[in-house]
Amino acid sequence: MKTWLKVLTAILLLYTIIAGFLFDVPRLNIVNETIRALYFHVPMWFGMVVLFLISTIHSVQYLRNPSFERDTYAVEFANTGLLLGLLGIFTGMIWANYTWGSPWHGDPKQNGAAISLLVYLAYFVLRGSVENEDQRARLSAVYNIFAFAAMIPLIFVIPRMTSSMHPGSGGNPGFNMYDLDSKMRMVFYPAVAGWILLGVWIATLRIRVRLINEKLLNQENE
Amino acid sequence: MQSLKHLFYKELTLELRRRSVISGLLLYLFSTAFICYLTFSLRQNQITPLVWSALFWITILFTVINTVAKSFIGEKKGRDIYYYSIASPEAIILSKIVYNFLLTMILSFTGFMLFVLFLKNPIADLGLFCIVLTLGAMGFSASLTVLSGIAAKANNSHILMAVLSFPIVISVLLITVKVTKNCIDGLDRSVSTNDLLTLLAINCLVTAASYLLFPYIWRS
Fold first, then answer.
1. Nearest CA in chain B to A113
2. Does any CB of chain B come closer than 8 Å to the CB of residue A126?
């Protein structure tokens, strides 16, 4: 990642944290101050979907043109996406505890999110159980693409069809409704960009570590 | 197209020759339905329609995963090299999906009959339920066949098959359970049209994905 992007990430996240905790937010019943979860919980999901998308694109490219780098990219982006997804679930549970009364409410969106995380956990189990490296890379690439195709209906379609208490679906207002003077957008959009960039940064660091390890291993063998 | 037909007949004849497999699966289905019956034996009135649909779909899910898993896992080593030399991977996956669809259909309808026999029949709208069973069988066979191909290449493939398939199959399962509830309540069919169309769309998506991705699994 370019240095200016790293600086931008740091600035955006610093701004998100300061503005997210200190700026004025609309006063609403029940939701109250927890509306600030918007700056931390929602961007996690955006970040997760973006990282999984990048991972899937690398998997497609791996199938077209196999190489060790492509496989590493796909794995590490999936890894970081999984981390963001877990954080998204935990932040959501904290929010739900204060607004819905219990951390796990069986909401369709919650269940869909949990299932999509299961998909990627299964992806890592699959990687663990194939020994041949080429075969492992190819099979997991196929599963990655297949899983991404199956995840889209889960996260985006099914929760919209069933009634849900989650803001923004099933007739419940999203933040557009609360946020009449668009003040929250000024923090929300930078927050989304910042968290996504942080995810990409983590993933690129991990990829570099992996590639260097691989190089060292090859040198030892020579 | 020609090879697809031949491969389909090959699957069918193989199945009819070793009847132990299909009879084993039917017995599996029978035992599960019977266990459901025995656990509730005298308290039949406790089986509310929702409990019925949960038991039914769990039974079908497990039977179907076991059925489809054998399509690649059971194959003898080396035989796939022979198939590789005589047929295109697209024909192989399509023939397997069509064949598994047929098998899943038979098993789901048998399962339904067993459930009606042992437990009871809470379904008010039978026609719609048959459509749901058909679409569900289509979704199961399309998504599980390619996963069976993946799992067959790995170690401990039977555990892997279950782990890989649950998250993928669940989107199909959620919709079928929802429409089953509509069937039980005997709601107007227009209520379920949207769900059925979504199910059909998922089926098409999954079939297309298997068709495109299978050649990469097959190549190794």
1. B167
2. yes
